[in-house]
Amino acid sequence: MLLDKPLAVQVVALTGATGFIGTTLRKRLVESGLTVRALSRREEGVHEGIEWIKGSLENAGSLERLVEEADAVIHLAGAVRGSSLDQFNRINVDGSVRLMEAVRRVGASHRFLLMSSLAARHPELSWYAASKREAEQAVQKRAGDLSVTVFRPTAVYGPGDKEMRPLFEWLLRGWLLTLGEQTARLSFIHVEDLVRAVVAWVSAPQVHSATYELCDGCPGNYDWQGIAEIAKKIRHGSVRQVTVPAALLQGIAQVNLSFSCLTRRAPMLTPAKVGELRHPNWSCSNTAVEQALGWHPNILLERALEERYF
To answer: 3 — phi, psi (to 5°)?
Structure first.
């Protein structure tokens, strides 16, 4: 997305630049003519038009170097896997607080974007959701007069995603694993649309402190049957729905959590995550963010599946 007018922001400080969303975003920011400074545990120097600052969310010095002279800060880095609430909080909450404190000490930035999650709407459902909500509150509390925008995207998918891609591949083979009630409301957003929303935020002449939900804009969002119908249309064949019982899902999650203690690898599916996965209403509306930023999503789930754009 190339911009044909001067930007309100010229220098962007970015965390999470090597992750799923960040990999796409950093490229689009550079294409938009911005100077991008990104935090990395490994990279250093200038590569691909990006100035890499070696460091981490635990290192106050590297965070100050990251945000120095930056007009805007975009905070993507965070944990989506973990075996305890404390593990999520150390990254999602404490890391966000350290970054905001660095911004306030340096004092150059005039806008801050926190990438949260729609899960933060229901912090009681999972460790991840609770940590995201607390991170939002912690950053807003410490912001002072700095404008803080919170994006709460729904389930994000697209090239580079490792979590949802296998589910979509099975769906197009004719198998749909359903979690929770058949009437559950679901929503999705393609990574390119989410990144376009971030670029719209960067290019906006003025932004205000606000929290926005983001999805692909499908009227009424989705349900399991609707997703099956989309797949039937694309593959010109039947789709079998296999409902995973709650007890089985909980059992798998418990085994997964126990196994992670042996391997010391952060798990995705845990007993705490099950409540989030089985929640009956992940519907979402773009009304507020569209009015604020003039952004509109372009990629519905049907198009992404049909074009294998995931």
So the answer is: -105, 140
Contact 288, 298 (CB under 8 A): no
pLDDT by residue (tens digit) across 113-147? 999 999 999 999 999 999 999 999 999 999 999 99
Beta bridge partners of 13: 37, 73
For 243-302, the pLDDT digits (tens) are 999 999 999 989 988 877 777 778 888 988 999 999 999 999 999 999 999 999 999 999
CA distance 5 to 98: 33
**pTM of the predicted model, to two decimals?**
0.94
Domains and CATH numbers, the chain: 11-158+189-217+283-298 (3.40.50.720)
Torsion of CA 95, 101, 102, 103, to 10 degrees: 110
Alpha helices in 204-269 (DSSP H): 224-235, 246-263
Hey, is 83 helix, strand or coil? coil
Kind plus residue range of the DSSP H or E element containing 209: none
Distance CA 117, CA 128 (A): 9
Residue 260's CB is within 10 A of a number of other CB atoms, namely: 18
